[in-house]
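Quarterly update from the structural biology core.
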Amino acid sequence: MVEIYMKKVIITGASSGIGEAIAMEYASKGYALGLIARRMDRLQALKDKLSEQGSIVAIRALDVTDDQQILPTFESISDELGGVDIVIANAGITAVHRTGKDDFEMNRKIIQINLVSAMATVDAAARLFRESKSKGQIVGVSSVSAFRGIPGSAAYSGSKAGFSNYLGAVRMELKNKGISVTTVHPGFVATELAENMEKYPFVITAEAAAKTIVSGIDKKSANIIVPKLPWSVLSHLINVVPDSIVSRVF
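Predicted structure, tokenized:
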């Protein structure tokens, strides 16, 4: 069991992209890590790397669409680490889908993983903290597309808008239970999950995004926008920008 004074964080979707970068950032800060993803080989490689650097790491394979297994997986990791302070619901997918042109099944998959499974992850984290009577922190990774839908990614935008709205309601609901809720709105982050990201504006690396995200989580910020500039400004203006400009940009 991990020493009681060491802070512990669970991260879903931890085998690549933002999730992996967040794991590495927390490892550098001395946290014990509970890493969850579908690809056990990638998780094992990450564990080996971080363990060599002195980090304590527990890994579990999980497909978050199997929502009945999320809570048992959290409980298993919590038992191994000796508790949990932060749960980060990061697992998600992205896809370009032209409405009425491609198979609708991709839309269904996006909504299932990015919204339904993400909600199930948050719900399981809340139950874990409530049952242990601990004042934990739940973090949900949404997107700046929650502020204004991106043409060609309508289902993705809808899933993230729904998740942000859900997290806002959960934040108010759990406040009196001593459980804090943080919503992360990344802009365009270069990862292996998103092709041709270089064509979008204000692209940053996963490592740069992780530093900002972890800093905001540590401050228990309700809302984190990454990078802060220009998106913190654009988030207030984007809904008054004409459709013609949004279409040209994206």
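Strands lie at 8-12, 32-37, 57-61, 86-89, 137-141, 180-186, 189-190, 204-205, 223-226.
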